[in-house]
Amino acid sequence: MKKYTANFPVDLVYLWVDGSDEQWLAKKNAFLGKTTFHKDVNCKGRFADNDELKFSLRSLEKYAPWIRKIFIVTDNQIPDWIDVENTKIQVVNQNDILPKEAQPCYNSVIIEHFLYKIPDLAEHFLYANDDMFFNAAVEPEDFFAADGYPIVRLRPYPFAQFWYFVKKMAGKKLSTYRKTILKSSNLIKNKFKKRYWGLPHHNIDAHCKSDYRDVVETVFADEIQPTVVHHTRNRNDIQRVIFLYYALAVGHGHLRSINRTESCVVRMQRRNYQRYFDKYHPKLVCMEDSERVSDANRERAKMFLETIFPEKSEFER
User: Is 48:297 a contact under the CB 8 Å cutoff?
Assistant: First the structure.
C-alpha cells in the first residue's frame, strides 16, 4: 500500500482493570453473589493485572509516538504508577460511557460497544487490551488507508463454515468466544448479504468512531440493546468483530489477512516467549492471559516484558 501523510489525529483506547484490588473484588463479588472465577467466562485471566499496561505504554512511546491521546477506560481505578499529570493520558470511568442498565459491568464485550462515547475521542482511533504491544516502528498508514478508512486485520479461516457445521452435527457447543464471533458474522450476513469468516487477530485494531456509533445506535441497535444487561460474559453477547465486519460490508474498511509476522499472540503459559519474537519479528504482539495461566506464568511474563521494554516511559511517575 502506498504511503501517505495522515492529515488527521489518531487516539488509542485501552481497557484496564486491577483484579487484585480488594475493594474492586468486594464490589464485584457483592454484585455477582459469588467469589470464585468461572472458566471461560469469568476466569482470573480476564481481570488479572500484571503491569502489562505499563509495558504497552512503553512500547507505544518507542514505536508509535505519533498517537495524539491515550484513553484508559477503567472501573473507577487508576494504576498507582501512572503519571496522571501527563496531558496525553486520560483515565475514563467506564460508568461515564455505559448506559445505566449496564452498570456495574464486568463484561469487556459490553464496555467495548460504548467506546465511541468517550469525550474528545478522535474520529480515528486504535483499540487495545492492556496486554497488547507494538514491537516495531509503525505509522498511521499502518492502520488507516489514504481514504481515512481503517485497515481491517483478520486471521484467515478458510474452513470455518465446515468446522461450525461439524461441531453442530456432533452436538458440541462452541466456546462462548467463538459463539459471539459467529453471532456477529450472522448479523452482518442477514443485514448486508455478505459473509466474513475471518477471525479477530486479538491485537491492536483500527476503527472510525462514526462506524461505532452507527452500529450501536442504528444498524444493530435492536440486537445490541438486550445484551447491555449482561454484566459478565454471556453466550449471547455480540463480539466487537462486528465493527470490523460492518466496516468491510459498507465499504469503510480495507481487509488485510494477516499472519504472525504482522500480528502474533503469545500465550503466557508457553515456556519460550523469545522464540516467537525471534522467529516472526511481529509488528504487533499480544501476551495472552487465560484460564490456563498460573500466577507463576504471569510473573515469568512480567520479567520477560521488562527485558523487552526496560526503559521507563513519560507516562510513569
Answer: no
